[in-house]
Amino acid sequence: MWCFNNINSLKDGVWRAENIGNVADLTAAIEGQIGAAFCGFENIPSHEQGQLVFKDEILKMAMKLPSAGIN
Question: What's the pLDDT at 63?
Answer without folding.
Answer: 82
